User: What shape does this take?
Amino acid sequence: MAQERVEFPIAGTVISVNVKAGDEVKEGDVLCLLESMKMENPILVPVNGKVTEINLSSGQTVQAGDLVAVIEF
Assistant: This one.
């Protein structure tokens, strides 16, 4: 199976994590919410598949390009 690496497009603080490893997800589902510049930004699933790796927790500070999750499709 192919894998899609999802990365943060901007820096910020993770507000909530909506999935865990092993979850089945659909394109457009919200992986997590990121606060950046006082705005909440949803990080969306780009493909239908299964989350094989998730590398974040609430309250974590992240940079643009940091890995959010790996999705197998």
User: Anything to note?
Assistant: The CA atoms of residues 41 and 52 lie 23 Å apart.
